[in-house]
Amino acid sequence: MEPKHFPQVNAIYGADQPEYKPLPALQTADGYVVMCFQMTEEERKKIAETGEIWISLFTGGGALQPIYITTNPDELFYTVKPEDKND
What we know:
This protein is of the alpha+beta class. The protein has one domain (2-75). It contains one helix and five strands. The protein has one helix at 41-50; strands at residues 2-3, 11-13, 23-27, 33-34, 37-38. The longest helix has 10 residues, at 41-50. The protein is globular. The model has no long low-confidence stretch (mean pLDDT 88).
């Protein structure tokens, strides 16, 4: 699974940190961060077989923030709109 660039991206997390893969995202003024990931054909087959997606988040011992995973961007906490602009 690879992070996917989309038209509204205005931030790249980890861009200058070689130990991380750069993560393109839309970061909004009201605190939302929207990311997109592209699955390989093998990953699509695995999900079709198992119906599972595993998620690992590093919180550093802090509180777990709400996350929402979907295949439909219209279901996100924050709806990505065409007028969202690149910075």
